[in-house]
TrEMBL record:
Organism whose genome encodes this protein: Siccibacter turicensis
Signal peptide start-end: none
InterPro entries from the UniProt entry: DNase_TatD-rel_CS, Metal_Hydrolase, TatD-like, TatD/YcfH-like
Family, similarity comment: Belongs to the metallo-dependent hydrolases superfamily. TatD-type hydrolase family.
Keywords noted in UniProt: Hydrolase, Metal-binding
Protein name (Swiss-Prot/TrEMBL): Metal-dependent hydrolase
C-alpha cells in the first residue's frame, strides 16, 4: 500500500521532544505505508525556512503561499510568484478565506486569495484552499478568478454535501482530514460519502487535528493511515483501494510523476 499525506506542515512538528528530525517523522510514516508528503507553507519566510529544514527529497513536494490567517502583515505578490516558480513547488497555498478567526483582515484575505489563483493559472499549478465561515465568498472568488484553469483542492473539508457538489462542478478535489473521525462530524461524513472516489484526497494537516484514536496528541503524517482506514469504511471500499485512488488523484492534481508514488 502507498499512502500520501496531501497536506502537512512538516515544519510545525515538535522536534524537541516527540521527533528527532524530519527523517524520524518520515520513517514513522513509512512504517505505516505513508510514503509521500506535500509540505504546505503558510508564510513566505516560512516557505524558505521549511525548504531549508526539509531539503531536497524524492518523497516530499512543496507548496508556497500565505495563509488567510497570516494576512496581518503585507507581502509582495511578486515575491510569491518568484518563490512559487521554484522547482519542487507543486501548488499555491495554502490560501483562501477564514472569517472565523480573523474577520478583520477580510479584504486583504480576498485580495491575497485572488493573487494566489492568478499566479496558479500563470504557472499552471493548482491552489490549496482553506475556508472557514466564508463559504459563499470562497465559491465566488474561485469562480470569478477562473480557478478551473489551474484546478485545486479544498483542504481539510468541513462544509456540507451541497458545497462539495459546487466544488466538484468546478473540477475541484476534496481533501478530508482527521476531523471526519470525530464523534460529532456526522454532516461531514455525509459529505464524504457523497464525494466520488476519483476526487478524494486524504491529509493530516499535522501538527493540528489528530484523528481518533490519537485525538488530543500532536498530529503527524503517519496518522493519515487512520484517516484513510476510516474513509475506506465510509466509502465501502478496502483501504488498499482507497490508498490507490487517493494516490492517483494526488499525482493527477499536482502533476507529480507517478513513478515517484510507488514503493522503490
Ligand atoms: Zn487550512
Ligand atoms: Zn494547513
Amino acid at each position: 500500500m502507498f499512502l500520501v499525506d496531501s497536506h502537512c506542515h512538516l515544519d510545525g512538528l515538535d522536534y524537541q521532544t516527540l521527533h528527532h528530525s524530519v527523517d524520524d517523522v518520515l520513517a514513522k510514516a513509512a512504517a505505516r505505508d505513508v510514503n509521500f508528503f506535500l509540505a504546505v507553507a503558510t508564510t513566505l519566510p516560512g516557505y524558505t525556512a521549511m525548504r531549508e529544514l526539509i531539503g531536497q527529497r524524492e518523497n516530499v513536494a512543496f507548496s508556497c503561499g500565505v495563509h488567510p490567517l497570516n494576512q496581518d502583515e503585507e507581502y509582495d505578490p511578486e515575491t510569491l510568484r518568484e518563490l512559487a516558480a521554484h522547482e519542487g513547488v507543486v501548488a499555491l497555498g495554502e490560501t483562501g478565506l477564514d472569517y472565523f478567526y480573523t474577520p478583520e483582515t477580510k479584504e486583504r484575505q480576498q485580495q491575497s486569495f485572488r493573487h494566489h489563483i492568478r499566479i496558479g493559472r500563470e504557472l499552471n499549478k493548482p491552489v490549496i484552499v482553506h475556508t472557514r465561515d466564508a463559504r459563499e465568498d470562497t465559491l465566488s472568488i474561485l469562480r470569478e478568478e477562473k480557478v478551473t484553469d489551474c484546478g485545486g483542492v479544498l483542504h481539510c473539508f468541513t462544509e456540507d454535501r451541497e458545497t462539495a457538489g459546487k466544488l466538484l462542478d468546478m473540477g475541484f478535489y476534496i481533501s478530508f482530514s482527521g476531523i471526519v473521525t470525530f464523534r460529532n462530524a456526522e454532516q461531514l461524513r455525509d459529505a464524504a460519502r457523497y464525494v466520488p472516489l476519483d476526487r478524494l484526497l486524504v491529509e493530516t494537516d499535522s501538527p493540528y487535528l489528530a484523528p481518533v484514536p490519537h485525538r488530543g496528541k500532536e498530529n503527524q503524517p503517519a496518522y493519515v493511515r487512520d484517516v484513510a482506514e476510516y474513509m475506506a469504511v465510509l466509502k465501502g471500499v478496502s483501504v488498499d483501494e482507497l490508498a490507490a485512488a487517493t494516490t492517483e488523484n494526488f499525482a493527477t492534481l499536482f502533476h507529480i510523476d507517478p513513478s515517484r508514488l510507488q514503493k522503490s
